[in-house]
Amino acid sequence: MEVIFMFIVGFIAFFIAIIAIFKGITHRIKSPTDELKEEISNLKKRVNELEKDKKN
Question: Can you tell me where the transmembrane regions are (predicted)?
Answer without folding.
Answer: 6-25
